[in-house]
């Protein structure tokens, strides 16, 4: 069980930095226990589990890992926690962005260096509610993943590419995943090597690589590369809620479109995803006027 310590170069909000990797409550591949973060994933060296704890008194991050992927995870701990991220490159052009950065100085952009780990759940989140996507991810990992190395028994590692390809059609249906999304995942895992190469590309090339596969559009590519590359400019377009939140926070107006959101964020070119994250952290959202969209369940059909 190898272990490491790391001295962050500046303020680090561990939970908000890594929280974007969690796919809903009960995510079998991510958890929080006794204030420590746990992450199970499939690395190029094999399955691994990482436990990360902040030790404020010492100003350090302490980590230990289990499994064949343990050394790979520990070697990349600083990158995961945003060592190469530079929040200072954003110049606040709105008071709400300035205030959010002042209140949350330790939020960095995590960089996992893994593509399928973020691409598959992002595909599951296409055109459905978050609750539906989280349920599908949870069921698929519980049924078809493998027990994660280490002492936390509930943790699961997602299947290897061949394992995803062998999931029968009725199991996708039971998890509430329609044929369009399951087909996109199967195409991705069949091209797993080329997909993972995107982790070593710049944002533009990585986006083109992902979008070369049918079923992966700008929304899915951005959601994936925000996590894989820690890309500060990977702004999500095509989202049901984000443009409305950004528009309301910056102008007080409702009904902002993607095009209008991009125009509002133009002063943050190169840092648009970071600006959007800070705006979301501000908590300024338009008041709800309609009931929450009902959760569907194709497994009942």
| DSSP strand tally | 7
Order of helices and strands: EHEEEEHHHHHEEHHHHHHHHH
- The CATH homologous superfamily of the domain at 115-228 is termed Hypothetical protein, domain 2
The structural class is alpha+beta
- Strand arrangement, largest sheet? 1-5-4-3-2
Determine the number of helices (DSSP H or I, runs of at least 4 residues): 15
N-to-C span: 46 Å
User: What's the architecture of the domain at 115-228 in CATH terms?
Assistant: Orthogonal Bundle
Keywords: DNA damage, DNA repair
InterPro entries: Alkylbase_DNA_Glycosylase/TA (IPR051912), DNA_glycosylase (IPR011257), HhH-GPD_domain (IPR003265)
Catalytic activity: Hydrolysis of alkylated DNA, releasing 3-methyladenine, 3-methylguanine, 7-methylguanine and 7-methyladenine
EC number: 3.2.2.21
Describe this structure in words.
- The longest helix has 15 residues, at 130-144.
- It is built from 15 helices and 7 strands.
- The mean pLDDT is 95.
- Among the domains are: 3-86, DNA-3-methyladenine glycosylase AlkA, N-terminal domain (TATA-Binding Protein), CATH 3.30.310; 115-228, Hypothetical protein, domain 2 (Endonuclease III, domain 1).
- It is globular.
- 41% of the residues are buried.
- The strands form 2 sheets. Strands 1-5-4-3-2 form a 5-stranded antiparallel β-sheet.
- 42% of the residues lie in helices and 12% in strands.
- It is an alpha+beta fold.
- The chain has helices at 14-18, 70-75, 77-80, 95-103, 116-124, 130-144, 161-165, 169-174, 179-190, 192-197, 203-211, 218-228, 242-251, 258-264, 272-282, and strands at 3-6, 30-33, 36-43, 46-55, 60-66, 146-147, 156-157.
- It starts with a strand and ends in a 19-residue tail after the last helix.
- It catalyses: Hydrolysis of alkylated DNA, releasing 3-methyladenine, 3-methylguanine, 7-methylguanine and 7-methyladenine.
- Keywords: DNA damage, DNA repair.
């Amino acid at each position: 069980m190898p272990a490491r310590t790391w001295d962050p170069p500046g303020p680090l909000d561990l939970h908000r930095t890594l929280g974007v990797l969690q796919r809903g409550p009960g995510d079998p591949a991510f958890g929080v226990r006794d204030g420590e973060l746990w992450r199970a994933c499939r690395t190029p060296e094999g399955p691994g589990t990482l436990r990360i704890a902040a030790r404020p008194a010492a100003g350090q991050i302490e980590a230990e890992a289990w499994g064949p992927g343990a050394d790979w995870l520990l070697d990349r701990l600083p990158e995961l926690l945003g060592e190469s991220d530079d929040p200072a490159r954003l110049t606040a052009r709105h008071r709400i962005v300035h205030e959010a950065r002042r209140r949350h100085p330790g939020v960095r952009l995590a960089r996992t260096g893994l593509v399928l780990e973020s691409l598959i759940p992002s595909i599951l989140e296409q055109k459905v509610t978050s609750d539906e996507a989280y349920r599908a991810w949870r069921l698929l990992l519980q049924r078809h993943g493998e027990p994660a190395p280490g002492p936390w028994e509930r943790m699961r590692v997602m299947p290897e590419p061949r394992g995803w390809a062998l999931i029968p059609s009725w199991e996708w249906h039971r998890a509430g995943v329609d044929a369009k999304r399951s087909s996109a995942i199967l195409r991705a895992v069949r091209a797993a090597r080329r997909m993972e190469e995107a982790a070593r590309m710049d944002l533009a090339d990585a986006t083109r690589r992902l979008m070369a596969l049918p079923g992966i559009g700008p929304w899915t590519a951005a959601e994936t590369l925000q996590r894989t590359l820690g890309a500060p400019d990977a702004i999500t377009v095509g989202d049901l809620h984000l443009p409305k939140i950004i528009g309301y926070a910056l102008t007080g107006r409702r009904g902002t479109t993607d095009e209008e959101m991009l125009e509002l964020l133009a002063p943050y070119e190169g840092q648009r995803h970071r600006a959007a994250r800070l705006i979301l952290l501000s908590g300024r959202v338009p008041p709800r006027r309609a009931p929450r969209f009902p959760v569907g369940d194709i497994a009942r059909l």
